[in-house]
Design brief:
The protein is built from seven helices and eight strands, in the order H-H-H-H-H-H-H-E-E-E-E-E-E-E-E. Helix 1 crosses helix 3 and helix 5 runs antiparallel to helix 6. Helices cover 35% and strands 25% of the residues. It is rod-shaped, with a radius of gyration of 48 Å. It has a four-stranded antiparallel sheet with strand order 1-2-3-6, with no helix packed on it. Strands 5-4-7-8 form a four-stranded antiparallel sheet, with no helix packed on it. It is an alpha+beta fold. This is RNA polymerase subunit sigma. Keywords: Membrane, Transcription, Transcription regulation, Transmembrane, Transmembrane helix.
Length: 262
């Protein structure tokens, strides 16, 4: 069997022969057991060679008489196959990226939980229900601790004879120092106020500041009382007194009411 006949076997297997050459080869195939055997061995790899077109086969036939052309053809075929594989890998990677971006977590959920016998477990999160909102304390709110209750600590009532401001303090000794809750009334506004701790050694500490609106607190215009809380690191035993002060625009403070723990 000549080399040309062998090339005809490959070309016939790939279906690239024209009608005339196909008929001629089939006539030859009927009487040539060698070509028939060669054709049989090529059947399993026809799918692998199906991407080689007629031009490539023609080039391969020409290389039988030109070794240099054979080398160039082989290089070109190898490069073409590398480019084809590279494009296939890029296409596959792009598809994965696009699909993953569209499906997000759902993709991983499908791949992980679609196995037989695997059941998705309910997630544990925040309890359902209406959203929780908060609001600042209002002077009209119930007394500290709710109706019928009062904060812990020593209760002290005081009304300043000059300003008329009324104060109720609850002073509690704590491991961290002293906690204090206080209620103010007959406090006119507008003004800025602060609560000052005066120690027995005559040093002072500002532990709370707030603004009073125009209507004030516990007044005829605004009857609601002001309820606040504060804390200091100073032990109760070292406190001389608490003083509510009014501070003007220049930062000058004047006393409104003074409360002395027992």
């Amino acid at each position: 069997m000549s080399r040309a006949d062998h090339m005809d076997v490959a070309a016939y297997a790939l279906g690239v022969l024209d009608e005339h050459d196909t008929e001629r080869f089939e006539e030859h195939l009927a009487t040539c057991w060698a070509c028939a055997a060669e054709l049989e061995t090529m059947v399993p790899v026809v799918g692998m060679l199906s991407d080689i077109d007629g031009e490539t086969m023609t080039a391969l036939e020409q290389t039988q008489t030109n070794p240099a052309l054979l080398d160039r053809t082989l290089v070109s075929v190898r490069a073409h196959r590398r480019r084809t594989r590279f494009r296939q890998m890029l296409a596959t990677a792009a598809a994965v990226v696009v699909f993953g971006g569209l499906t997000g977590v759902g993709f991983s959920t499908i791949t992980e939980d679609s196995r037989p016998g695997v059941q998705a477990q309910p997630s544990i999160g925040a309890p359902s229900g209406p959203p929780v909102t908060s609001r600042p304390a209002d002077p009209g709110d119930p007394p500290i601790g709710g109706p019928g209750s009062q904060p812990e600590g020593e209760k002290i009532n005081e009304t300043d004879a000059t300003t008329g401001v009324e104060a109720t303090f609850f002073v509690a000794s704590k491991d961290f120092g002293t906690g204090v809750n206080f209620i103010l009334g007959k406090l006119p506004g507008p003004r800025v106020c602060r609560l000052v701790v005066v120690r027995k050694n005559n040093t002072t500490e500002i532990i709370s500041t707030w603004s009073v609106p125009g209507g004030g607190y516990g007044t005829n215009q605004s009857p609601g009382l002001l309820t606040l809380g504060a804390a200091t690191s100073t032990p109760t035993s070292e406190i001389k007194h608490f003083q509510v002060q009014s501070v003007d625009a220049n930062g000058v403070a004047s006393p409104l009411v003074t409360v002395k723990p027992d």
